[in-house]
Amino acid sequence: MDTHFDLQAKSLTYQPFGTKTPILSDVSYIFEEGHMTALLGPNGSGKTTMLRHFLAQIKSPGGAVLIGEKDSASFPPKERSRMLSWVPQNSSGDSAFTVEDVVLMARYPYKGTWENDSQEDIRIAEEAMRTVSVIDFRNRDFGSLSGGERQRVLIARALAQTTPWILLDEPTSNLDVKHQLEIMELMKKRVDEHGLSVIVVMHDFNMVEKFCDRAVLLSGGRVVARGTVGEVLVPQILRDVYEVDFDIMEKDGKRMFFPKSLK
Question: Taking the model in full, what pTM does it have?
Answer without folding.
Answer: 0.95
